[in-house]
Design goal:
Blueprint lengths: L3 H64 L2
């Protein structure tokens, strides 16, 4: 039969390993989140630029069309 100090030591060891595993997962997910946020920021900037270019082209074409009538 195991003695109480052995059970406590085993429980502490298991708890420590669990905490390390969870902590590693948390750090990994935070890094992944930061990476995804950076990618999202870049995509939003590209979308804004494309929208501005599209709007400018539509305004240009509309002005030419109105002038030619």
């Amino acid at each position: 039969m195991m003695e109480l100090p052995d059970l406590v030591a085993g429980g502490l060891a298991a708890g420590t390993l669990s905490a390390l595993a969870l902590g590693g997962g948390l750090l990994r997910s935070r890094r992944q989140r930061a990476s995804l946020l950076a990618e999202l920021t870049g995509l939003r900037a590209r979308l804004d630029n494309a929208q501005q270019a599209f709007t400018a082209e539509i305004e240009h074409l509309a002005a030419r069309r109105v002038r030619s009538r």
